[in-house]
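[Automated response] Your request has been received and processed.

Submitted sequence:
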Amino acid sequence: MAGKIKRMSTIKQLLSLHSNGQGIKYISRHLSMSRNTVRSYLSKFKTLQCTVDDLLKLDDPILEARFHSGNPAYSDTRHEELMSLLSYFMSELKKPGVTRYLLWEEYKIGRPSHYCYSQFCFHLDQHAASRRPTMVLHHDPADKLMIDFSGKKMHYVDRQTGEEISCQLYIAILPYSGYVYVEACRSQDINDFIACTSHCLQSLGGVPKALVTDNLKSAVTKWINMNLTSTLHLNIWLITMGVLFFRQGHINLGIKELLKTWSK
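Generated structure:
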């Protein structure tokens, strides 16, 4: 387990896969982790004398201390004291004007052997990450095409008039490969939605088994008791293309990453 410490959300997935009978090779491939690292964590798990269920119930900072108890950072008495304060610090950060530096200044009062600012921020980040659990989602090739509009409008400039014109950003993602298709269009109405999706499928050179969207007004008329009703025009087009239609919000992560890249 030398090198960078893995996020405990990933280690919890490792333990879950191990308890389900998955081998080291499978775990390594699905968690993008070296086989030696997987072996190291499993070896440490055997020495803890705990069940997988017991470890999965622990908060991430506590679980991390279990797996890295030999690390001086976790045997230090300062660590345990800081852990008891992190929930308070996280709640304070939500208040206007409160910064990490201000909280660190507060933390130092009465603690001559306090953590330095960088270590304080590190443990704060670790605690925040433990409150944002993640999991690995598995997808099959050509199974789904996830579609949504970015929500945030983009703009382009007419070279002849100099006018700044706003446009919508249509985004489609193949979750298995991570391939992204992006197209600017005038609006989010059904005609533009169908046109963009047609262009996307033509670009891909094929049709997936299903289209998956969020609550697009251009595509969804009702979403009641887990039953989805799509618009009439979309229904006709779907029948013609031979694909199913589902709703899901998975694509939002792809949109955030795309906008983050374009904003740089």
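Summary generated for your ticket: The first strand starts at residue 144 and ends at 149. The chain has two domains: 8-130, 144-262.
If you did not submit this request, please reply to this message.
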